[in-house]
């Protein structure tokens, strides 16, 4: 009887330890704004987040001379889902700062995903923009490698949008969506169409 009780307590302790380890990994969205030696991190529904909605972060403020009128990040559950990631980052600044600006928008708990990530971005301001997407199989905020080098079929993973701007005004939007493979349907339809075209040509000849 004591042996069974000891085994039960050991199993319970191991499960509790694993649970605490899993909870230690952040599973929320966040925006990080950096310029020079200054960095501001805004967690979803905490601190200086101006949006009360889960899955949306809104921040306005100044950093290293930059005056950001609005910085908004949309992610699940407002946009997309865990298995079909969609994220959108909008940055607007009318006063340039003293050094380049980097804005990172991250979210965790994605996957598994049967598709690939497509990234689009534009900026109507005077600053030049460099945009990239990182995916982290360790599911950590702001971590990862370029999205093209990660297997999205594994879960969970995090996604981070990284936008870097030279000194200037900013009116930018960076968005990702996830394509869903069609299982070869498009190729089959194209093949059928070409075969039909060949048949028609032979009949007309």
Give a brief outline of the structure.
The protein has 2 helices and 11 strands; from the N terminus they run αβββββββββββα. It is of the alpha+beta class and 205 residues long.
Work out the number of β strands. 11
Order of helices and strands: HEEEEEEEEEEEH
Please count the helical segments: 2
Which residues sit in consecutive blocks of at least 5 with pLDDT less than 50? 4-26, 183-187
* Approximate helicity band: 10-25%
Oligomer: single chain
**pLDDT averaged residue by residue:** 83
Beta fraction of the residues?
35-45%
Total number of distinct structural domains: 1
Structural class by SSE content: alpha+beta
Shape: globular
Radius of gyration, whole Å: 23 Å
- Please state how the strands of the largest beta sheet are arranged side by side: 2-1-6-10-8-9
The termini sit apart by: 90 Å
Biggest sheet architecture: 6 strands, antiparallel
Please name the defining characteristics of this protein.
11 strands; globular
Characterization of this structure:
The chain has 205 residues and is α+β, with helices and mostly antiparallel strands. The chain has one domain. Helix content is 21%, strand content 41%. It has 2 helices and 11 strands. It has helices at residues 2-24, 185-204; strands at residues 30-35, 38-43, 56-63, 66-74, 87-95, 101-110, 116-123, 129-136, 145-146, 157-165, 170-179. The strands form 2 sheets. A 6-stranded antiparallel sheet has the order 2-1-6-10-8-9, with no helix packed on it. A 5-stranded antiparallel sheet has the order 3-4-5-11-7, with no helix packed on it. The longest helix has 23 residues, at 2-24. It is globular.
């Amino acid at each position: 009887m004591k042996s069974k009780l000891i085994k039960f307590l050991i199993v319970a302790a191991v499960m509790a330890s694993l649970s605490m380890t899993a909870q230690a990994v952040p599973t929320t969205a966040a925006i990080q704004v950096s310029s020079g030696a200054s960095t501001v991190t805004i967690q979803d529904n905490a601190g200086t987040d101006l949006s009360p909605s889960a899955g949306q972060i809104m921040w306005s403020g100044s950093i290293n001379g930059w005056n950001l009128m609005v910085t908004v990040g949309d992610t699940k559950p407002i946009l997309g889902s865990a298995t079909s990631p969609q994220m959108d980052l909008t940055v607007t600044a009318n006063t340039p700062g003293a050094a380049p600006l980097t804005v990172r928008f991250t979210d965790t708990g994605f996957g598994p995903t049967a598709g690939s990530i497509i990234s689009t971005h534009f900026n109507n301001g005077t600053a030049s923009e460099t945009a990239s997407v990182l995916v982290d199989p360790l599911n950590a905020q702001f971590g990862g490698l370029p999205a093209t080098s990660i297997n999205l079929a594994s879960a969970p993973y995090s996604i981070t949008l990284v936008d870097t701007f030279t000194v200037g005004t900013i009116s930018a939007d960076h968005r990702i969506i996830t394509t869903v493979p069609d299982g070869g349907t498009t190729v089959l339809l194209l093949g059928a169409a070409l075969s039909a075209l060949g048949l028609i040509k032979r009949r007309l000849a």
